[in-house]
């Protein structure tokens, strides 16, 4: 075992956070660039953009559940999680590079089916991210002791990943989305491939049992798990609707252009800049709040109640966007309010879920939990035709507000659980 890992130094925690950071960065590139480039470069309408985004959830169903199960029970290339992080990272980098060349690939293959090529690239990118994401998060639990060291591992992961995600959006806003693509491909490759070569995985995982209301148990508490998944699912219908269709809101509501209008390079860059700044604000709040604000609150009122309140605030932010988000300034300010909910989404649900499942099957359970993300993403992707036909694109955030309000109510019905106890 490397000395850095044995002593659990800060440098080791940084190293351990990088594979998940790489996948988070790839997602940020996708969110910042995919809808924008499909509309501005290839002329896809809102409905077609939604169809391409549908590839991601399909990949998630296949990738996270299957890879989560497999990575719990295999060993090759001196690791349980390493092979999937390496393979996924390399393919993700290549697919990011392919985004500006979808038309070139289409012509080279003689297909004359650009939407099919776009779906294939998006599907492969999402599949690669999904292949890597669960192992990248699971490896933290594999190589850190239960308790504060493991909590520290996930805290470092979120802080570093959040910081670089904000950086991705700022690069897109101030340098350009095409530059973001090339920088992103290089960063994803380096951050996914090299760090895992210096992390030593245990051949055998330690056995852990969880406790809920002081009753020892080893198996997954399925009723509690399903309640958490149900509440989380409504969150992701709203969040994914925001990620996919915000470009249409910016283009029509704020800038006054028709969604299918043939705009100049400067006008398209303005749209890209606005989307980049908005999501940079969202993610800045998202990575700053958990450690500084949410953690102290959870110690007083519990994780579940804290999360429910944050989701309710997010619903309110979306409602305010519908009422008064038509200027760029108000749009940016209200995205910061939405970021309060996003800070909870990226930090609390996994911690809540992990306390009600069998720790020895964490890869599988994370994959199953991910269904509460990818199935709602499919719902959001299917809304493109409906949203595209609406004369007022405020409907985007009306949908978001309703979904987050339902989610907040559902979270209030989830029971708080105690922290896991480790039996060495």
Describe this structure in words.
The chain has 424 residues and is mostly helical. It has one domain: Growth Hormone, Chain: A. The protein has helices at residues 3-7, 10-40, 46-53, 55-73, 82-98, 102-109, 114-143, 148-174, 177-193, 222-254, 265-301, 303-324, 328-345, 348-354, 362-369, 371-381, 384-388, 395-411, and strands at 210-212, 215-217. The protein has a two-stranded antiparallel ribbon. A hairpin with a 2-residue loop joins strand 1 (210-212) and strand 2. It is globular, with a radius of gyration of 21 Å. It starts with a helix and ends in a 13-residue tail after the last helix. The relative contact order is 0.16. Mean pLDDT is 87; it is low at 208-216 and 420-424.
Question: Gist?
Answer:
The protein has 424 residues and is mostly helical.
Give the beta-strand count: 2
The chain-level mean pLDDT equals 87
The tally of structural domains comes to 1
Number of helices: 18
Q: What composes the largest sheet?
A: 2 strands, antiparallel
Beta-strand share of residues: under 5%
**Spans where pLDDT lies below 50 across 5 or more residues:** 208-216, 420-424
Helix-and-strand structural type:
mainly alpha
Provide key terms for this protein.
single chain, 424 residues, mainly alpha, Growth Hormone, Chain: A, two-stranded antiparallel ribbon, 18 helices, 1% strand, disordered C terminus
């Amino acid at each position: 075992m490397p000395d850095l890992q044995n002593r659990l130094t800060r440098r080791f925690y940084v190293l351990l956070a990088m594979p998940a950071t790489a996948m988070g960065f790839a997602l940020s590139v996708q969110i910042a660039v995919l809808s924008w480039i499909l509309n501005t470069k290839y002329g896809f309408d809102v409905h077609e953009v939604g169809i391409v985004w549908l590839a991601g959830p399909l990949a998630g169903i296949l990738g996270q559940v299957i890879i989560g199960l497999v990575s719990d029970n295999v060993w090759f290339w001196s690791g349980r999680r390493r092979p999937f992080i390496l393979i996924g990272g390399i393919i993700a980098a290549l697919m990011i590079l392919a985004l500006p060349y979808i038309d070139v690939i289409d012509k080279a293959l003689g297909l004359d089916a650009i939407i099919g090529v776009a779906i294939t690239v998006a599907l492969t990118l999402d599949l690669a991210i999904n292949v890597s994401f669960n192992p990248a998060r699971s490896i933290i639990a594999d190589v850190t002791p239960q308790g504060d060291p493991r909590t520290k591992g996930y805290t470092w992961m979120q802080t570093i990943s959040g910081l670089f995600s904000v950086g991705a959006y700022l690069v897109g806003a101030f340098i350009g989305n095409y530059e973001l693509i090339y920088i992103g491909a290089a960063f994803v490759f380096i951050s996914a491939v090299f760090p895992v070569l210096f992390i030593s995985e245990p051949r055998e995982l330690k056995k852990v049992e969880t406790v809920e209301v002081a009753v020892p148990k080893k198996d997954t508490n399925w009723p509690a798990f399903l309640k958490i998944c149900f509440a989380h699912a409504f969150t992701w219908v709203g969040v994914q609707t925001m990620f996919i269709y915000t470009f249409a809101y910016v283009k029509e509501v704020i800038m006054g252009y028709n969604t299918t209008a043939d705009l100049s390079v400067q006008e398209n860059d303005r749209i890209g800049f606005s989307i980049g700044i908005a999501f940079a604000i969202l993610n800045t709040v998202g990575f700053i709040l958990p450690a500084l604000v949410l953690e102290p609150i959870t110690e007083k009122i519990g994780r579940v109640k804290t999360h429910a309140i944050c989701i309710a605030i997010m619903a309110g932010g979306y409602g305010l966007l519908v009422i008064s988000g038509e200027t760029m300034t108000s749009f940016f300010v209200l995205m910061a309010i939405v970021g309060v909910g996003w800070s909870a989404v990226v930090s609390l649900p996994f911690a809540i879920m992990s306390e009600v499942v069998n720790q020895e099957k964490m890869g599988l359970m994370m994959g199953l939990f991910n269904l509460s993300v990818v199935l709602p993403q499919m719902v959001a992707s299917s809304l493109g035709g409906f949203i595209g036909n609406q004369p007022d694109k405020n409907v985007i955030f009306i949908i978001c507000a309703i979904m987050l309000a339902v989610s907040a109510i559902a979270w209030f019905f989830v029971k708080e659980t105690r922290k896991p106890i480790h039996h060495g």
